[in-house]
């Protein structure tokens, strides 16, 4: 016996005597779905068979929209569409990272004696070609000079050499 209750209907009893509850799929009003993923035609009460994609192996239902076009949908999305209370809470994706900081364009100048690198007034050093930033170590950055010597260069010294007008403004 089928009893229609607004957007949901019940029929048949399972092995424990509980009725199977069917809800209308909001995106596809011609169909109903149970909370365990069975889909049926709302008018004829005929169950819809799942089909398997031969290439990917994914299982889906072939459903017809109101305008007559057909589409394939996996049962999980249909369940959550009709039974939103069953949708699991979304967990944050991976670690929360600090937002990236970008230096303003056009403020990059070449570092004399270190032709592979550029310096910005915000205290950032980057490679000239790849544009990757160089890591800072306690106010210093490790650079290779034009004569290929590895050197620890102070950010303060770079500011004084490349942006002397900004150092004077800060001192005043």
Describe this structure in words.
With 172 residues, the chain is mostly beta strands. The protein has 2 domains: 3-86, Homing Intron 3 (I-Ppo) Encoded Endonuclease, Chain A, CATH 3.90.75; 108-171, Homing Intron 3 (I-Ppo) Encoded Endonuclease, Chain A, CATH 3.90.75.20. The chain has 3 helices and 14 strands. The strands form 4 sheets. A 5-stranded antiparallel β-sheet has the order 1-2-3-4-5, with helices on one face. A hairpin with a 5-residue loop joins strand 2 (8-13) and strand 3. Helix 2 (155-162) packs across helix 3.
For the record, the count of structural domains works out to 2
- Poorly predicted residue ranges: 1-6
What is the distance, rounded to the nearest whole angstrom, between the alpha carbons of the first and last residues? 89 Å
In CATH, the topology of the largest domain is named Homing Intron 3 (I-Ppo) Encoded Endonuclease, Chain A
Give the H and E element order: EEEEEEEEHEEEEEEHH
Number of helices: 3
Query: How would you classify the helix and strand content by structural class?
Result: mainly beta
| Average residue-wise pLDDT | 82
Shape: rod-shaped
β-strand number: 14
Radius of gyration (CA) equals: 32 Å
Please state how the strands of the largest beta sheet are arranged side by side.
1-2-3-4-5
Give the helix level as a range of percent: 10-25%
Name of the level-1 CATH class of the largest domain: Alpha Beta
Major beta sheet summary: 5 strands, antiparallel
CATH architecture of the largest domain: Alpha-Beta Complex
Strand content: 35-45%
């Amino acid at each position: 016996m089928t009893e229609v209750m607004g957007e949901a209907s019940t029929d048949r009893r399972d092995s424990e005597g509980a009725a199977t509850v069917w809800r209308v799929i909001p995106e596809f009003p011609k169909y109903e779905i149970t909370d365990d993923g069975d889909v049926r035609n709302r008018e004829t009460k005929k169950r819809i068979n799942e089909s398997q994609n031969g290439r990917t192996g994914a299982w889906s239902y072939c459903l017809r929209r109101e305008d007559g076009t057909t589409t394939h949908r996996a049962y999980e999305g249909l369940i959550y569409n009709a039974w939103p209370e069953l949708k699991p809470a979304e967990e944050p994706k991976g670690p929360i990272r600090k937002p990236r900081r970008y230096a303003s364009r056009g403020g990059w100048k070449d570092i004399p004696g270190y032709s592979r690198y550029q310096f910005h007034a915000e205290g950032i050093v980057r490679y000239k070609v790849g544009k990757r930033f160089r890591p800072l170590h306690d106010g210093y950055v490790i650079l290779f000079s034009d004569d290929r010597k590895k050197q620890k260069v102070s950010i303060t010294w770079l500011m004084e050499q490349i942006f002397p007008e900004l150092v004077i403004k800060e001192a005043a």
